[in-house]
Amino acid sequence: MIGFVLIWSTGFIVAKFAAPHANLQFFLLLRFALTTSVMCGAAVASSVPWPKGKALLAHLAAGAMMQGVYLCASYWAIAHGMPAGIMALLGALQPLFTALYLVIATRVRLGARTWFGLLVGFSGVACVLAPKIAAGGPGSLTVISIVAALLSVIAITAGALLQKTLPQVDLRSAASVQNAGAACIAAIMVLAFGVAPWDNSAILWGILAWSVLVPSVIGTTLLMWMMRQGDATKVTALMLLVPPLAAVQGFLFFGETLSAMQIIGFGLALLGVLFTQFARSQTVAPGTVAPRIR
After folding, report:
1. C-alpha span between 4 and 223 (Å, rounded)
2. Residues 58, 124: Cα–Cα separation, whole Å
3. Beta partners for 292?
4. Of 64, 112, 118, 166, which is the most buried if we count CB atoms within 10 A?
5. What does the pLDDT read at residue 287?
6. How far is CA 34 from CA 140, 170, 171, 213, in A?
7. Is 78 in a helix, a strand, or coil?
């Protein structure tokens, strides 16, 4: 699945390419709408079943969170100075946020290994963000851009948790419905912030075509398939390869660089995710003693 990692790593680079040419929220609205049309056409042509009733609403909600809020917030942060590699790193923190959710929303207790992973992971993130926050002036990060980035991580965490509970239908119809849910979020953002700019250039339309056909149609379908068929830890291990690749692409295409402290932070954050994800977790039935996630 190296192909998936390469495809997924281009998602944030697309935002950097498109930012000088378009309003990124309108860009995402077109991306989600076109992806919905492509996957809907594939589903109709194959006469596959569609989610109905509560299942339809659940798929819409999953798409709204896992793609809509996640990418709208991510692209907003990138448009306001967040480097592509750092945004990709924050997106890879989903297992850490999932562990925190288990502490807050369930009776699961975390063992030493999981707490160590959380501590290492978030320490790494602090190392990555601190130089950009302290820099001040052009290229520095603001509180609101960091909040947007963290909101995106919370959204993909909630969407992934919901995704695991969805009634399984054909990937084509599921992807069509979920992209429609994402398009609704992007439409709200466009209504709030407007459409301009949109320079209608050939490079912009080329970037849009790439984002629809490669990260959305191929990448998202592969991710949904892996989440259904594969071991969650293996999926996470693959996703950990995305931030370094995105950082390399950010350097090659846009000259984005990382300081020594940030490189160390990258390593710590990804190591923390591995510790947290590979720690064994158990759910707790009401009235029973809460086990530990080691």
Report:
1. 8
2. 34
3. 109
4. 64
5. 43
6. 34, 19, 16, 9
7. helix
